[in-house]
Structures are given as C-alpha cells and as structure tokens.
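We give this protein:

***
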Amino acid sequence: MILLFLLGLGAGSFLNVLALRYKPGGWIFTRDILSGRSHCPICQKQLRWYELIPILSFAIQLGQCRHCHQRISRQYPIVEILSGLTFVLAPIYADPAPIWIFVVLTLILIALIDYRLSIIPDQLNLFLAVLGLASVGLESIWGVTFGAGLFGLIILLTKRKGMGMGDLKLAAALGFLFGWPKIILIAGLAFVIGGLWAAALLLAKKKSLKDAIPFGPFLAIAAVVVIFAGDKLINFYSQYLL
C-alpha cells in the first residue's frame, strides 16, 4: 500500500507538470512540456530536486517558495494526494485496476486543464474512449448514445452557451467507457455538483449569472465517484428511493 501510494504521488506530480505547461491546441506529450526544468511560477527561479519531492517539500517549506516566499498553489499537494489514493484504492474497488488508474489520472488531468483554460483536449477524450474498448458491449453503445445525445441537445438548445463541444466529447467518451446506466449517474452527479458549486460562487459574489463555469471538472469528479462507489449508489437508490 505504501509503495502504491508513493508511486501515485509521483504520478500526481507529473500530472501537475502536464496540466500547468499545456498550451491550448497543442499536444500533451511534447518536448517543451516534458524536458523543461521546473521553476517557481512567480519568481521564475529554477527549483532543485529537494524542492520537488511530492507533499514533503510543500510541507517543509510551509507552502511557500524557498526563494521569493510567495505562497505555492495548493493544487500541487492536493493532486499528488488524490493520485496516491487512486493507486491505493483502485486495486481494491476497481477491476481491472490498471485501466481504471489510467482513467482516474486522465480525468484529473482533464479537470485541471479545463479549470485553467476552459478547454478539454480532444486527445484526452480519445484516450478515454480507447480505454473503453476494453469493455465494448451493448452497454457502451447505449452509454455513448446517451452521453453524446444529452450534451448535444444542451448545446443545440443553448446555442453553445450552456455547454462546449469539449464537454460533449468528454460525455461521449465517458459513456463509451462506463456504459449504461452508469453514464446517467455520472451526468446526474455532475449537474448536482456543478449546481452546488455555482450556487456557492454566486452567494460569495465571485461569479455572476453571466459568467461561464467549466463543466469538465464536474464530469471528472462525478466519474471518479462512480468508479469507486457507483454500484453502491445505484443499489442505495434502487433499495431506498424507488
């Protein structure tokens, strides 16, 4: 468990690099993204290896840059911890574990990029669809039909103001990957989580009704919840709410 968690921490650190260096319209794995040395985003000081140890460096430096003493984004340890937990929990709750580990890591990357840039790279949606090939069946066909159909309808009715094409592609990929009826659960959870988050931002006056909020992170969160607790949620709904 400890080894898996440490491997996950390293994967999370790598996800942060990919998410923060990605440029709109580009590829995820390019020489510019993979070869550059890490540096402080504020003072641009190049970081040494002991400043890049997942979680540990953040804790020792009290969440500050060692050079300019500005606060470091909490995204770094949060993503590292989430990735570490994914490596530990996937072998217990998801089968086959390697595929679902890649799914969760991809969803985390999608959420980070969409939150920062309000775009979802096509290559990541395609990668999710490829992972879905491992479970192709009637459930997958119904899943991709529902995912693409629902979000396509929203885009059509709102003239692309309610959703973007990236959201449609992500929903289709998730539908293909998870199949029917779990795609319904993912969509429902995403709308609930997104609605609560939007309401909180409105109450805090950080957003207005005219502001757009990326929907990809909510789809990603909902999908991860379904990976680890989807069957339990469906059983609970069937047993107590129907």
In short: The chain is about 70% helix and 0% strand.
